[in-house]
Amino acid sequence: MLEIYVGPEGNFSTISEALLAISYNTKATLYLAAGIYEEKIFCEKKNITFIGAGPDKTIIKWNDYANKPHPDGRKYGTFRSYTAFFAGRVVTVKDLTILNTSGDNKIVGQAIAAYVDAEVAHFTNVHFDSYQDTLFCAPLPDIEHQVGGFLGPRMHTLRHSSFQFYHNCKIAGNVDFIFGGGDVLFHDCEINSKALFKDEIGYVAAPSGKASGAGFVFTGCRFTSETASKGSVFFARPWREEAKVALLNCYLGDHIHEAGFSPWNAEDTIEKNSRTTFIEHLSYGPGANTTKRISWIKKLDSEASKSLNMRIEHATIAWGIGK
């Protein structure tokens, strides 16, 4: 395996230079020294690992955003706004921070910190920070709702499945800040909601996966906020009708809305959301009162709960963090 050291004393001073030196098929590990890497990262390698010196020491940041004019005469749009893009077969990222520093979404629109489109992705002790659309867990939906809405790296490619695992990570934002069609397990993560403008509503997740997939599963996570007002944030709303989200054994702060989950549009009917699967099981904390949750939330019977927990245990063991 190829090992490359990036930083003042390393083989390369920037991450982008190091990536250019690696062929697609070469399995490689990039060790990123402490420091701020102000660069837009595009990575498509078969099997690559990035290891930083810690989230407070190794920081990758950039500042593109949806409303920013692009050199091609159009705006960047959501999917060209990323700070870091990860594709290929397998990507592993540990001990660093990825920021989009564009600022509040009320002004700049969507601004992705990480666009993750690898077939298998594993993030451990990584912090992601932006406002709207912080973390995109690919693939894109099959069809865009508006012309040019998917402008970006995977606009015209065939969609492929993506399994992504986030362990001991912190993901911060305010609107749809975890979104996409991947099958994603968030284990022991902090999901941090930022403040909104007065009377606005926040949403953590906007999944769009297929009904046959696992969707977004949060297990043992902490939904926190220092700045969002009480009851101002929903767990999720379905970006596409077959969306799936499961919350298992999670701590919920009092910023969580009493309904828990939301339709995409306020006027959507229960019938329109009949293909959406939202599950909440064994929540605790000040936002965990489930008496006023939406009527179309799904319940876990004992057999389904046992099966889901078994799949989660197998996934964590496969990644070397289970018992």
CATH topology: Pectate Lyase C-like
According to CATH, the homologous superfamily is Single-stranded right-handed beta-helix, Pectin lyase-like
What's the CATH architecture? 3 Solenoid
Helix content: under 10%
What is the CATH domain class? Mainly Beta
Element-level helix/strand string: EHEEEEEHEEEEEEEEEEEEEEEH
Question: What can you see in these coordinates?
Answer:
It is globular and about 55 Å long. The protein contains 3 helices and 21 strands. The protein has one domain (36-318): Pectate Lyase C-like, CATH 2.160.20. It has helices at 15-20, 105-108, 302-318, and strands at residues 2-6, 28-32, 35-38, 41-51, 58-62, 84-100, 114-116, 120-129, 135-137, 163-167, 170-173, 175-180, 183-187, 190-193, 202-207, 216-219, 222-224, 233-236, 244-248, 251-252, 277-281. It has 323 residues and is mainly β.
